[in-house]
Design goal:
The protein has about 190 residues and is mainly α. About 80% of the residues lie in helices and about 0% in strands.
């Protein structure tokens, strides 16, 4: 005869197994969603910083173009007014224009290169570190462990039940053939 305690314990072990599996599946789903969100944040930040870098570069190149136009205009005006200058001063002033223009262009191009370097060496690793801090470990569903845990819980309940039966001497098996109360025991020892 099956005890109601054991039936309840067995049902509880089955429910414990199912609940543990569902909890592990839910934890896995949440971890996957967290990683997807972290990846979207990473991609958005990379796109945003690249857009900013492109805009800064375009603005700086536009400034170089404007400076070249201004320098050409000044040189043209200067060349027209050449009659007022002697040979050496003319060459000196013209060289000064070219030197100023080149220094400005190189400074702006250096700023562009520095921005690109900072992006590759500073910004991208920082974005990757932030992604690593936002992403999480994705656990696996371990139904074998859950079954073992539920089985041990049931076994503990079963052995507790049997020990209580033995303690209160209610564990009488009517079909026990190995004892002296057996129906077929004749009392003779071999």
């Amino acid at each position: 005869m099956c005890s109601p305690t054991l039936v309840i314990s067995g049902a509880s072990a089955v429910l414990q197994y199912q609940v543990a599996n569902e909890q592990q599946k839910e934890a896995r789903r949440r971890a996957i969603e967290q990683n997807e969100l972290a990846l979207k944040n990473r991609e958005a930040k990379i796109a945003n910083t690249q857009r900013q870098l492109i805009e800064k570069t375009k603005a700086r190149l536009t400034r170089i173009g404007d400076a070249e136009k201004t320098a050409r205009k000044k040189r043209a005006i200067f060349k027209v007014n050449r009659e007022n200058q002697t040979g050496n001063s003319y060459d000196f002033l013209l060289a000064n224009y070219y030197d100023t223009e080149a220094n400005y262009r190189n400074r702006v191009l250096g700023n562009i290169e520095r921005s690109k370097f900072n992006y590759l060496q500073g910004t991208l690793p920082a974005i990757d570190n932030q992604y690593a801090s936002q992403s999480t470990y994705v656990p696996q569903v371990n139904s074998g462990y859950n079954a073992l845990n539920s089985g041990l819980t049931f076994a503990s309940s079963y052995y507790d039940y049997k020990s209580k039966q033995n303690r209160f001497e209610t564990n009488v098996d009517p079909y026990d053939y190995g004892t002296s109360e057996s129906l077929y025991y004749d009392g003779w020892e071999d």
